Amino acid sequence: GPAFAARGGAADIAVRNGTVVTTGNGTLLDLSNGSHTSFSASAVNLTGDIVSDASSTGSVFLTQRTTLTGRIDPVALTVDGTSTWNMTASSVLSSLTNAGTVAVAAPTGSPALSGSYKTLTTGSYVGNGGTIALNTFLGADASPTDRVIVDGGAASGTTGLKIANTAGTGAQTTGDGIPVVVTANGGTTTASAFHLAGPVQAGAYEYRLYRGGQGDANGWYLRSQLDPTDPGDPVGPSGSGSGNGGALAYRPGVSGYALTPLLNVDYGFSTLGKLHERVGDIYNLEKQQPGNRDGVWGRIGGQSLDANAGRFAADERTFFAQLGKDWTLDQTPNGGSTHAGVTATIGTSNASFTDLARADTPDLSTSTGSVQMHAQSLGGYWTKYLPDGTYFDSVGQVTHYGNRYRDSYGNEASQNGFGVALSQ
Question: Could you tell me which residues are beta bridge partners of residue 267?
Answer without folding.
Answer: none
